[in-house]
Amino acid sequence: MILYDIPDIRLFWSEDERFLKQFIVPHTWQKIKFQPLSRYPPLINDISFWLPSETYSENDFYDLARTVAGDLIEKVVLVDEFTHPK
Q1: Residue 22 belongs to what domain range?
Q2: Residue 54 belongs to some domain of the structure
Q3: Domain count, the chain
Q4: Is residue 77 part of a domain?
Q5: Is residue 21 part of a domain?
Q6: pLDDT (tens digit, 9 = 90+) per residue, 6-65?
Q7: Is 5 in contact with 34 (CB distance < 8 Å)?
Q8: For the residues of 51-71, what is the DSSP string, one character each?
Q9: Please, what sign has the CA dihedral across residues 27, 28, 29, 31?
Q10: Which Gene3D superfamilies match (predicted)?
């Protein structure tokens, strides 16, 4: 726990991939720094919608998500864009 700055011993019995993947390295001498995990399991929600291109900015949606959900949202990521040729 001290070597990797792991705060909770129960993580050693975890089967959470987010924890386990942190310790898969190509060389055993490579330094590892534990990255804290959310207390909630990973959840991915995919949202698709149509927007007029001339009045929309990505930051508008990010601000809306933060305003509505607050601390419940950890990260909002734009994964893909599609523009219809017409």
Answers
A1: 10-69
A2: yes
A3: 1
A4: no
A5: yes
A6: 888 888 888 888 888 888 888 878 888 888 877 766 666 777 777 776 777 788 888 888
A7: yes
A8: --TTT--HHHHHHHHHHHHGG
A9: positive
A10: Bira Bifunctional Protein, Domain 2, Ferrodoxin-fold anticodon-binding domain
